[in-house]
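## retry 2 of 3
previous attempt timed out at serialization; input unchanged, resubmitting
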Amino acid sequence: MAYGIPDEDPTKKEIIDPPDVLDQKLDQLAEWIRNAKHFIVFTGAGVSTSTG
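## retry succeeded, writing output
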């Protein structure tokens, strides 16, 4: 039995940003969190896996 996303499906590719783009996105996220009145994080099984 196979698990995960088939390699031939181009709509399901994992996006990996270059380090400079990732830094910009993390800075923006940090700003949103600092300015938020409330902040919620959903965690659990499958959240951190690339196949969801």
